[in-house]
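COMPLEX REQUEST
Ligand: calcium ion
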Amino acid sequence: MRILLVEDDPVLIDGLTYTLNQSGYDVTFAITGAYAESIMLAKDFDLIILDLGLPDMDGSKILSRLRMRNSSIPVLILTARDALFDKTENLKKGADDYMIKPFDLRELEIRVHALLRRSYGNYSKEIICGRLSIDILDHHVLADGKSLPLFSREYGVLESLMLQAGRVVSKDKIAQRLSAGSEELGDNAIEVYVHRLRKRIQPYGVRIRTLRGMGYLLEPYEG
Ligand code: CA
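STATUS: Structure written out below.
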């Protein structure tokens, strides 16, 4: 899931990017409206988080123009202004939800999740590799169509690798995805999770290759 974060406050960019990365979202940020609009044309996103007070324009302009182009991408507005006027105006312009600063990062994450769920309806956001599939909204893993329960860290490793299937994912990247901000995860810990996960998924035509000094790569294989 790709999220475009249009925000000019560096502290918020850091906090939001970190929190959303932890949940497995891929975050691109833009600190000006002009950059946001150019990157929107070049790349596909699943959701936009949009601050209204941008250095070069009012964020609601971006929203209006987006809806004028008939884009139905979900937009979550961030605003420091708590005026009722803003809220109704922006919902009229086509915002799907809004949050007033300061807000709780955890709550934002829940709202993002809900918007994506609504936007994709009953269709799951599935990634498939071999006979394994994961739903990155529900964090649910299926192996040969049956539920494969994993511990949350094993799931985290699997998701990091599935999102980049066929490409090398560094240990650092996996550690970032797994550590909940409180503790640092050493290389050894990552190796343990990878080892356990490898054993769980190998029977389903998926293997994890170790590329010494580089990281891990997930790929389907005929077993
Ligand atoms: Ca701002």
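REMARKS: The helical segments are 10-22, 33-42, 59-68, 84-92, 105-120, 152-163, 171-178, 187-201. The pocket of calcium ion is lined by residues 8-9, 51, 53-54 (CB under 6 Å).
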